[in-house]
Write a structure and sequence with these properties.
The two termini are 32 Å apart. The N terminus is likely disordered. This protein has 954 residues and is an alpha+beta fold.
Length: 954
């Protein structure tokens, strides 16, 4: 397994060679037809699910040219790639123009775009997704990859990735006021650095402002002959570019290669805390280098990305028809915008042309000439063409670039694909706003994500005039809250009180409250309506049932009860951890992140005696945790008991992460996600009691003595289970971020051939099989509540999404990418970007460029189609991230045989059901009998009172 990464990082922009700007978003881009020996009916299903697929390259070109002519000049402009610009962008400094350094950077950026476009065309002509990259490397020793390159290329010393290697890297806080350092450089220095960075995929996505900031942040570093720049096995923190002299790469004392001026090394150190594969020593005299550290690089990208996103969102909120939308919708629109470039004098669109694209100016000037309103000059932050999203009608003005201009563009087609029709988006946004104003919700601890979940469960109902919806005094069997979308109603009582209900009002909230016996209507209660509601004019209402509210907030007593501002967790408090017997250790202590997300509610029974817990057999261990198979002495029910040593948690700087995992897990209650039953602690340890999942790892179902892959019929079942679990977490704003079929091993025998001593952590198997054969997502050490995006790089490289690797922020799309990789592996036995002896940097290149292919004879057309949809390089174009969310995946022809209702109730027959002798059978797991109980055998330093306070809410 590739090393498991845990380092605060962020979003990436799409580093696959850029498509022409303005390209329409389709679920599958213009990828070539793959050969398949499956039945023709699969092809028919694909054609029904999406448009314009399975074409030959010639047919595709002909269709694109035909569509371009039909759409006219405007969409042709939208397809114009940044590489086709005729000149560099101009500075926004007025008549002073560009500085010499800015000119060099602009020239470099233009050349980079032109080269990217050339490569994109070559790949399109090849008609395949090439599995290999020409990285110019040469193997010197088993397990180490050395490359000596020309100036402008990196010289890498890469460890061949192993499937089970894990590494840990501590996250860093992203300061909002971060300012990158600036070190003086000559024009020649700038040119040198640009050349050295030009072919490195880590920097290929930087825009001109980012590139300029990065070049300024490189500091000069001089060293004498014999100086060790880095040592083998150390965690690297710098990326180097050799300016003069020579540097030798030593592995286990033997020289395996050298870097010459212009070579670079250490790019992985910018992405996460990677241990160095070789010692780097200055030879043949002194050496001069340029270097930049990880913190500067990561903060530079995150800060710039956040600033750009915020500026874009501020502009979008000024657009009249977008101003009332929820932040979530604004964020999704901002992510879907495409960058387009225009030269001075270019016509953006003409009066009378088809109007379907909306523009926001980032740089430059645009002259906007309206027949009736005259001429207006627009600059950065202004927008135009917004009616294209609302109406399908010809343009009423001319728009021309006065200066070289960079704009963000969004077509109506993309808008509807990402968000849906504008009218529905506005309705959903209004529903959310109205729900927040309902006193039962406003005066409670119900969180915003729960409001959004409830809004998604609102059904639209229509009633004719004179219809009586509620009658005063009648018992309500199915209580519901009603939101008035259109029409007029009257609510009145026998006492003569009345009110008129119009759009933006609500009624029925009194039916949601319990009766005198504290029971709710429809749940054993006898709730009566306090008023009569009659329709005066035909109306359209949004109906939110009490049952749907209950399914989201889990505890109806939270309505109208603010308590301490914290949502009640979903723990089963009836099970006492300390009355359990331990039998067998199931897995290892989870490696956590460390961004604190808030404290969990302390509602545990602290009177339980720890000595009433009996442990039996150990099944596994990590750096600071063990998991046991345990049973309750009183009931005999089996559980998994996770035990983590406080001292080791603190020493590994993971206290906040452990508490965050507990907080996240306490909010989860789903059959396909591991259930946290209870938690507790003593002076030495913290305990997490989990539902027992006995069937072993999904990985062992995929890879065993009989086979190395799974038939597609079985893949459908396992994919559906995992999808349901992920979607459940996403609805609660929880990102999983570490989807894979198996556990990392805490075993240094799994390390590469290079003798590197590093800290390893291990975790519970990430996807397990339960007693009925269903998938269960486990190990939520990387899980995180995220309202917008997160800038933490974490996970296992084989399954990382491009945006995670490239530090630009990611959301739920990263989980769906990982699911696509896992689907590919289940069908073929190998992940899409893996190759024998591949090194980690080459793997990252392939992921970022989206280079993979489907081996013949393994995948049906429908399977290929779904996987392509989830492996779309841009998150906003990825299945699961479009307007219908996970429904786009559920409705795909590949999963049409799944009965989602039966699946959720675990009534479908699983492909494989483990044979278990009894509730304490752990035969599906490896034996860890060679390990000792860490609690009884460890000699741990006593915690101070301040250290104990860290866990006070556990």
């Amino acid at each position: 397994m590739f090393k498991k990464i845990g380092s605060k990082m962020g979003k990436k922009s799409d580093d696959k060679e850029p498509e022409p700007e303005g390209k329409r978003v389709t679920i599958k881009e213009d990828r070539p037809k793959e050969k398949s020996d499956r039945k023709d009916k699969d092809k028919d299903k694909v054609r029904k699910s999406t448009k314009k697929r399975d074409e030959t390259e010639e047919e595709r070109r002909e269709r694109k040219e035909r569509e371009r002519r039909e759409r006219g000049d405007e969409k042709d402009k939208m397809r114009k790639s940044s590489s086709h610009r005729k000149s560099h962008r101009k500075s926004t400094k007025g008549e002073k123009g560009l500085t010499d350094q800015e000119k060099k950077i602009a020239k470099h950026a233009k050349a980079k775009r032109e080269e990217a476009e050339r490569r994109r065309k070559e790949e399109a002509e090849m008609g395949i997704k090439d599995m290999s990259l020409d990285d110019g490397t040469k193997d010197y020793e088993p397990g180490v990859k050395m490359s000596i390159k020309k100036r402008g290329q990196q010289a890498t010393t890469s460890v061949h990735a192993q499937r089970f290697d894990n590494i840990y890297a501590a996250p860093q806080d992203m300061a909002k006021d971060f300012v990158a350092p600036v070190y003086p450089k000559s024009d020649d220095d700038v040119e040198f650095l640009l050349d050295a960075l030009s072919d490195n995929f880590v920097f290929n996505t930087l825009d001109e402002v980012e590139l300029e900031t990065l070049v300024n942040a490189f500091e000069n570093y001089e060293c004498d002959e014999g100086h060790e720049l880095v040592q083998q096995g150390e965690i690297g923190g710098y990326f180097f570019i050799l300016r003069k002299g020579a540097v030798a790469f030593m592995v286990d004392g033997a020289e395996v290669g050298r870097a010459a001026p212009g070579n670079s090394f250490g790019e992985l150190a910018l992405l996460y805390n990677a241990p160095r594969a070789a010692t780097c020593v200055a030879v043949d005299g002194s050496a001069g280098l340029w270097r930049v550290d990880q913190m500067t690089f990561r903060k530079l990208l995150a800060t710039h990305t956040i600033q750009n996103d915020n500026q874009t969102k501020d502009v979008l909120k000024k657009v009249p028809f977008l101003s009332d939308l929820d932040d979530e919708f604004i964020n999704r629109i901002a992510d879907a915008l495409t960058t387009v470039y225009y030269d001075a004098g270019d016509t953006i669109y003409e009066r009378g042309s088809e109007g379907s694209v909306f523009y926001v100016i980032r740089e430059g000037k645009v002259e906007y000439e309206h027949k009736k309103r005259g001429v207006k000059t627009l600059g950065p932050g202004d927008y135009f063409g917004e009616q294209a999203i609302v109406k399908n009608e010809p343009r009423k003005a001319d728009a021309t670039a006065v200066k070289d201009t960079i704009a963000l563009a969004l077509s109506r087609e993309v808008f509807e694909q990402v968000l849906g029709p504008l009218s529905e988006v506005i309705a959903r946004s209004n529903d959310r706003r109205l729900l927040r104003s309902v006193p039962l919700f406003a005066n409670s601890d119900i969180e915003n994500f729960e409001i959004e979940l409830m809004a998604a469960l609102i059904d639209e109902v229509k009633y004719p005039a004179e219809r009586e919806i509620l009658t005063e005094g009648d018992y309500v069997d199915a209580p519901a809250l009603f939101l008035v979308r259109s029409g007029v109603l009257e609510a009145f009582t026998d006492d003569g009180e009345s009110r008129i209900l119009k759009s933006g009002t609500f009624f029925g909230e009194d039916t949601l409250m319990p009766d005198e016996d504290e029971k709710y209507g429809g749940k054993g209660g006898m709730k009566q309506s306090k008023e009569t509601v009659e329709v005066l004019e035909d109306c359209v209402l949004g109906k939110l049932s009490l049952a749907n509210i209950d399914s989201v907030i889990l505890d109806l007593s939270r309505m109208g009860n603010k308590k301490n501002g914290k949502a009640k967790d979903a723990l089963d408090r009836s099970v006492d951890i300390f009355r359990l017997e331990r039998h067998t250790l199931l897995g290892a202590g989870t490696r956590m992140g460390n961004k604190k997300n808030g404290k969990a509610k302390d509602a545990l029974d602290r009177s339980v005696d720890i000595f009433r817990l009996e442990r039996h057999t150990l099944l596994g261990a990590g750096t600071f945790g063990q998991v046991w198979l345990a049973s309750d002495k009183n009931t005999g029910k089996a559980y998994a008991l996770k035990v983590q040593i406080k001292r080791e948690i603190i020493d590994h700087h993971q206290a906040e992460g452990v508490c965050r995992e507990r907080e996240v897990m306490s909010k989860i209650d789903h059959p396909f996600v591991i259930k946290l039953v209870n938690t507790d602690q003593d002076k030495q340890s913290v305990f997490m009691l989990l539902r027992l999942v006995q069937g072993g790892e999904l990985f062992n179902v995929m890879h065993n003595d009989d086979r190395d892959c799974i038939p597609e019929g079985e893949v459908k079942f396992y994919t559906a289970c995992i999808l349901e679990g992920l979607a459940y977490m996403h609805r609660r704003r929880i990102l999983y971020r570490d989807l894979k079929p198996e556990n990392g091993k805490d075993d240094k025998s799994c390390l590469p051939h290079v003798n590197v001593e590093i800290e390893l952590t291990s975790s519970l198997c990430v996807v397990l099989i339960d007693e009925l054969g269903y998938c269960v997502i486990v190990d939520l050490g990387f899980a995180k509540v995220v309202n917008e995006k997160t800038y933490t790089l974490c996970g296992t490289p084989l399954y990382l999404a491009p945006e995670v690797i490239l530090s630009r922020g990611h959301d739920k799309g990263a989980d769906y990418w990982s699911l696509g990789c896992l689907m590919y592996e289940m069908v073929s036995g190998q992940t899409p970007f893996y190759d024998e002896n591949i090194d980690q940097i080459t793997l990252f290149k392939r992921i970022v460029h989206g280079r993979y292919r489907f081996p013949s004879g393994y995948f049906s057309d429908v399977a290929q189609d779904l996987i392509r949809g989830m492996l779309a390089n841009k998150s906003t174009q990825r299945l699961g991230c479009l307007a219908q969310g996970e429904r786009d995946i559920k409705d795909h022809p590949f999963l049409e045989e799944i009965n989602w209702g039966k699946l959720g109730k675990r009534l479908m027959k699983a492909p494989w059901v483990p044979r278990l002798r009894d509730p304490l059978d752990a035969s599906c797991f490896e034996s860890w009998d060679h390990l000792d109980d860490k609690e009884t055998t460890g000699n741990y330093k006593k915690l101070s009172s301040e250290e104990q306070k860290i866990f006070e809410d556990f």
